[in-house]
Amino acid sequence: MKKLFNSRKVNLATLFTSLVAASVVLTLLILTISSYQSDKESLTDTYLSLNYSKAEKMSQSVESLFGSMRTNLETTVRFLEANENLSDEEIHESLELLRVSSGYFNSLSWIDETGVIRAISPVSIGIKGETIAPGLSKDALDAREPSLTSPYTGLSNRLIMLMSQPIYSKDGTYRGMIGGSIFLQEENVLNQLLGNDAVEQNGSYYFVVGPKGTLLFHPERNLIGESVYENPVVRKLTQGKSGMEHVTNTKGVPMLAAYSHVSEPGWGIVQQTPYSFLQASLIEQLLQMLKNMLLPSLFLLLLSVFIARKLAAPFTHLGNLVDQLAEGKTVSQPLKETLIKPHWNREADLLTKSVAVAFETLERNNQRLTESALTDTLTGLPNRRKLDEVLTEWSSEDRIFSLLVLDIDHFKSINDSYGHQKGDETLKELAAVVQKIIRPDDYCFRYGGEEFVLLLPETNRLAAYQTAEQIRRKIEKTSLIPDKTVTVSIGISEFPTQSRSMAELFQMADQALYNSKSKGRNRITISDVPG
Known about the structure:
By secondary structure, this protein is an alpha+beta fold. The chain has helices spanning 2-82, 88-102, 136-143, 189-194, 232-238, 275-308, 315-326, 333-340, 346-373, 384-396, 411-418, 420-437, 461-477, 502-518, and strands at residues 107-111, 117-121, 147-148, 152-153, 159-168, 174-183, 205-209, 215-217, 243-248, 254-262, 267-274, 401-408, 443-448, 451-457, 488-495, 524-526. It is found in: Cell membrane.
């Protein structure tokens, strides 16, 4: 009977040892899976938001570009209508001047009402005097109203897109149209506008489609002119929709895609990141987390096995804790305090304290992962996700602050001339310069690419201008790149004086930045919206 009793005691200790080991391993497994799922959702939302922001920005740029192109054509037509006695040669000179000065079109032509090409710039295209064949260009001529065609192959055997503007004589007689052509598969205004960093190091890229799903711009120029209507995102763009979602492209590659519709020409811009890049980032973070947890977990496991053989009573309490963790419930503060509360039994006291140490380690790891999701890995600055949190908090408090949008001038030339590694070093050094100038309570965020956002609390836009000027001058005088002066352009808006809408406030600062760029760069512009 005594042997049987002893045998049962050994079996019971073995059972408790197995239960403790299984509980620790299961807890770590569940926490690892939970962290992975949480990080995956966080990174997915972050990349979708960043892609949507870039697609919207590109959409606004394209819409602004086409507005300027249309204005140029209208101005030329008004000049020709006011001087209708100009010869064909004089009209050609006007078209040549417009093409060279604006840089918007690869070619400009005057097609009379019969379809004959009376003047064309440049003349090297060699189709002056020819008659346009039935098709999109003939449809545009017959429509007698402003139009923008879909891509088609023109008389010069190029894939082109034609923007046209009708021209009339003073007595109202139709004289034909002035047409501006963009050679889609050659260097053109779209390449100049959209070609900067079209493909990022993480595999992200963007492309532009026409109203029928035809590629108008793509990093791979040989694809321009092809139809990608089968892409579900492209189909939504052709319906005038904008948004962001997981999608599989026409090559079968899963992507995190954001898309924005450009209303004026009816185009769509798609910015997308390969899902494989996000998975690689998640795996890297997961391996690092497991590496950090390995020794504490191993120590905890060995200590738990030893203590389980000495004492069985505390397992009831620890089982409740593991059950809560396994069910994904938040551990209450009283239960946390129980873990560190001294126990009358020395063995039980050691066991509970060991579990508390492991729990704190896991919480710290989760906290570090959360902080990393809010930090830009290159510059160490808070990222756009953190920016959204701060803006939400400050706006709810009705706090006065100024918002500054800062962009490095000609950053593409730095990458092209010195390489992306030097470009990254420039971004880090610039971030360090800004951090030294701003106050401890001010924020500087890496918004994306070469763009930064600053939030200056309790600061109106005039005072913010002074800080911006310090930053501008300091960067201009700092040798970020040997033998090259790096400059920045800045736009400023103020909350709540100018707007209580965060989107509108950011748009004001962004427009002010655009004005700084358009006026020559290396300058600061305060939003002129009344407030």
